[in-house]
Amino acid sequence: MSFEELTDQQAKDQAAELRRKLNQWADEYYTYDSPSVEDAVYDKTYQQLVELESKFPQIVTPDSPTQKVGDHTLPGFTKVPHEIPMLSLGDVFSKDELADFVNRLGETDAVAFDYNCELKIDGLAINLKYENGVFVQGSTRGNGQIGEDITRNLKTIKSIPKKLTRPINIEVRGECYMPKKSFAELNEQRQLNGEEPFANPRNAAAGSLRQLDPRVTRSRKLSTFMYNVADIDDLQSDTQSGMLEELKDLGFTINPDYKVARSMADIDAYVDQYKDLRDSLPYGIDGIVIKVNSLTLQRSLGATVKVPRWAIAYKFPPEEVETVVRDIEWTVGRTGVVTPTAVMDPVTLAGSTVSRASLHNPDYLQEKDIRVGDTVKLHKAGDIIPEISQFIPEKRPQKSAAYEIPTQCPSCGSTLVHLDEEVALRCINPQCPAQLQEGLTHFASRDAMNIDGLGPKIIAQLFQKQMLNDVAGLYELTFDQLVTLDKFGEKSANKLLAAIDNSRANSCERLLYGLGIRHVGIKAARLIAQRFKNIDKVMQASAQEIAEIATMGMIIADSVVTYFSMPQSKQLIQQLKQVGVNMDYLGVSDEELENSDSFFTGKKFVLTGKLQQITRPDATSWLEDHGASVSSSVSKNTDIVVVGEDPGSKYDKAKSLGIETWDETRFHQAMADEK
């Protein structure tokens, strides 16, 4: 049935269903950073609603997606009203539609004018507020009228200047994005941790900015491109292209790949150029934005309730190819997560040859119903990661059977499990060969057993030469074995043997952390070791006993109990005992802390900024050994804040609360006085 044949009631009902779908998908995409459909599916459905509401304007409702901008605000963030609304952009999906837009604008003015062509960055819209040239507040677009205050998180992004080159009051708008390299690394780590990978760079950036802990945001390696201001009167420029250069002069990062277009031919050439170049860019783009270059004309053209009349976004069509799934392989990561990968006939997609695509986890595989022998549609999520969108039913082999999820580890044969109701399958055998190599890198790391000189490349060689097959084997390596390694002389061999030998005497919290037990970080390992005094008692402890430790909880407790319930874990501990690895806690006991007259006893410390002479973990460990507690946030109960380089908001808060601050020199002097 065409729209012309619909009754008013039928149109109203159909519109209601389209709105329901679009609102649900928008919530998933904008608010929760977890889209369930491809952008192209959303865009097609949205256009259907636009066409339907155009035919039946009487059915338009205020809550329709066609009348709203962006996302909602999330709990945990302060709401920020936008005095000047942050609008979205209208979309077109063909050069003909783009030409129609340009022609309509041309009819509004008797004098020919220019356009500014810019890349449409796949990120999250942000607003930066400056007073006297100083960054005072940053926020998301939200629903266009009200956003979220994410100032602390934005301050962790290097491309955002804390102070401008001129002392002006201004609100600058742009896009926060995650570079392709950072996106790939983040998803790889999330899969290793048994977490859902982000669908695309935009959702990754949004999820990173909406962290309640700025340290998480800092670790995500975000960047920005700024391209607009709330009020053009705050600028000296009179063109969009001039605005970009002025923003650059103020200290902002702009995308340099813009172009002033004099004609539709220029616009078409720009679109074609970056349609071909998009795969080679270090960041994701999903189209081109065309803006009237004159700022005065922008103002006179104005905006609708949702979009400016002087700009449009041309969306690139999704590139999909067909290929055949020949096999589904399962690989085991460092943390034991077992991940399915589709092995396909090689095809050229977005400028590269693709023959493999992650299927993420068992639930994803079953939801997509991918089977060996299926012909599937393949695209690149965020123009980066190969992803199967669907199988083609009419090309499925007649005798096709649903794929059976494995129950045993493909490396060691152990039974696979779901932990904490997570979707990921895991192998929890600590001696699983596929996990051991990367697990050994963690075991030897500075915060664990601190075996200096034992990095991934050396460990890889030891495995390749079959000199090593488990953690305990480290302590049985010989000089004669080590000197056979590539680029490894007598001096290197002796140095590594000494480091391995020294690690035997570590306090047992380092061993506990080095075992790589899920959820057990440095602090948790220390608290557990401090409570139970040695590894044997930890192995005997119940989940309830572990959970009773302050800040611990049942998730960590269950993880520890599960790990030590494995026969392989008990065997590993026995082997480590046999090679002389210390199993006892050597730090300060609770009794010693209670009777201590140390200056630090009972003090609440916060560490901020980059420390030059001591690592953050070592400083934390020293403070805790001397009776202090270390927190990640400043409050009125904080006694002292130790300030390193580039301290950020914690230092500012300490000053505002009148809390005592120490530089690193003062801290080291206090440490020396304690000895």
When the domains are counted, the total is 5
What's the shape? globular
> Which CATH first-tier class of the largest domain would you pick?
Alpha Beta
Structural class of the secondary structure composition? alpha+beta
The number of E-state strands comes to: 21
Average pLDDT over all residues: 86
* CATH homology group of the largest domain: DNA ligase/mRNA capping enzyme
Content of β-strand: 15-25%
From the alpha-carbon coordinates, what is the Rg to the nearest angstrom?
29 Å
Write down the CATH topology of the largest domain: D-amino Acid Aminotransferase, Chain A, domain 1
Main beta sheet, described?
Answer: 6 strands, antiparallel
CATH architecture of the largest domain: 2-Layer Sandwich
**Portion of residues in helices?**
25-40%
Number of helices: 25
Low-confidence stretches: none
What does this structure look like?
With 675 residues, the protein is of the alpha+beta class. It has five domains: 3-67, Helix Hairpins (Orthogonal Bundle); 79-315, D-amino Acid Aminotransferase, Chain A, domain 1 (2-Layer Sandwich), CATH 3.30.470.30; 321-395, Nucleic acid-binding proteins (OB fold (Dihydrolipoamide Acetyltransferase, E2P), Beta Barrel); 433-578, DNA polymerase, domain 1; 590-674, 3-Layer(aba) Sandwich (Rossmann fold). Strands 12, 13, 14, 15, 16 and 17 form a six-stranded antiparallel β-sheet that branches. Strands 2-11-10-3-9 form a five-stranded mixed β-sheet. A four-stranded antiparallel β-sheet has the order 5-4-7-8. The longest helix has 24 residues, at 8-31. It is globular. The N and C termini lie far apart (85 Å).
